[in-house]
């Protein structure tokens, strides 16, 4: 038992040093696998296990056993039960066993003014009935549906937290978490769940003042959403960044950046660190990212790691860049060589942990042996 505790403490210290701006004993390693990958990897039926999670812990444990990571490497973000109860239109289970996020319009054009006046009330009264068919009913029925869905949601999460706790203890993982809470950039929530990609692209040209007012109105709500239940400077709030790469520079400056910056700064003012998934290519926005509170965690999908290290490495914590496509198509040596290359660029001076450019979702998206080899190599060879 003392050996298990000692290993967990050693791994935890790697991340404490990382977030304190010190150079850890070695480069920390974070594997990123979704529950869909874990179920497939364990040879279970994806559609069955998501509805009856009896085998979920065993599936997760197999990933933990076979793939090196200093933090718990597998997690479940969305389970289908409560979405089905709600009659969800924004998250729909596909025939292949994966939840899909179709293009949706939760906020109608004529409801902008109500949203600007009171985002929370508008979401409850108008957006939710638009996104969830079972809530588009009389108050009594709506209340019963919401109660059932919330019960399913809490049951699923309580089971997941139990599994996480068991595996963190059993496998001696570090005890910090980069997913202590979740929220979205204000413009992203307006896009992803309220207006949709097509509509928001039209809105920024046709009604820019209302878009800007809506972003400003929802920003305090996102700060509240990103608050951690048990705040710690060694945990982080996860914020996936979606729309910025698809915007013109002037639109980014007006609609995206001000609300996003207020969000990250608002969390920091409450002692909360942000963990950003810098989706797509943000190279033209690096000077903006440099302005964010020191120690912000940034996992990059694409871009030039040398430039990112030069511009952001002295202030922020960097990860990502390792392409999953190479794990699928490369030889084992090519995959290891890529890890060496990224470590040589990003590790000097600290402020770096090893991770892939995105979470691994499907079993066929990577070569399993290559993935194991890369994680093992970094764990055993990546010193600062």
Automatic annotation (TrEMBL):
GO biological process: porphyrin-containing compound biosynthetic process
Family matches, as SUPFAM superfamilies: UROD/MetE-like
GO MF, one annotated term: uroporphyrinogen decarboxylase activity
Coiled coil: none
Originating organism: Desulfosporosinus orientis (strain ATCC 19365 / DSM 765 / NCIMB 8382 / VKM B-1628 / Singapore I)
Domain Uroporphyrinogen decarboxylase (URO-D), residue spans: 180-378
Gene3D superfamilies to which the protein is assigned, alphabetical: 3.20.20.210
Top-level taxon of origin: Bacteria
CDD domains: CmuA_CmuC_like
Name of the protein described by the UniProt record: Uroporphyrinogen decarboxylase (URO-D)
